Amino acid sequence: MKLVKYSITKTKKVLLFETNIIHSDVSLDVISAGFAIISYDSDLDLFLVKCFGKSESLQLSSNESDCKIIQDYLNNL
After folding, report:
1. pLDDT digits over 39-48, tens only?
2. How far is residue 1's CA from residue 60's CA, in Å, rounded to a whole number?
3. Contact between residue 60 and residue 33 where contact means Cβ atoms under 8 Å apart
4. What superkingdom heads the lineage (predicted)?
5. Is residue 56 left, alpha or beta, with left meaning phi > 0 and alpha meaning psi from -120 to 50?
6. How many other C-beta atoms lie within 10 A of the C-beta of residue 27?
7. What is the rounded (10 degree) CA torsion for 23, 25, 27, 30?
8. Whether the Cβ atoms of residue 55 and residue 24 lie closer than 8 Å to each other
9. What are phi and psi of 10, to 5 degrees?
10. Residue 40: alpha-carbon gap to chain centroid
11. Nearest-CA neighbor of 14 among 59, 66, 50?
12. How confident is the model at residue 27 (pLDDT cuts 50, 70, 90)?
């Protein structure tokens, strides 16, 4: 399991980065941001993602759809 910060841009690009980095230093044209717990299920051969929280520097919260967007991104690399 890994805890990361994330942002999703208006064009649905996923940005994942370490928790010691400030959202506003990384993100432009963002529609949602927060934290994600990423785990890998070796039986299913899939990444699983749980999103929560918000970015105080961007004044944006995570959205319900963020988990699926990030999972789809990671599982299609």
Report:
1. 999 999 999 9
2. 24
3. yes
4. Bacteria
5. alpha
6. 22
7. 60
8. yes
9. -60, -30
10. 15
11. 66
12. confident
DSSP character string of 41-74: ETTTTEEEEEEE-EETTTTEE--TTHHHHHHHHH
43: left (phi over 0), alpha (psi -120 to 50) or beta: alpha
Q: Are strands 46-52 and 30-41 parallel, antiparallel or unpaired?
A: antiparallel
CA atoms within 13 A on the CB side of 33: 25
Prediction pTM value: 0.92
Cα radius of gyration rounded to whole Å, the chain? 12
Scan for tokens 């934290």, then name that residue: 35
Q: The tokens of 72 are what?
A: 């789809």
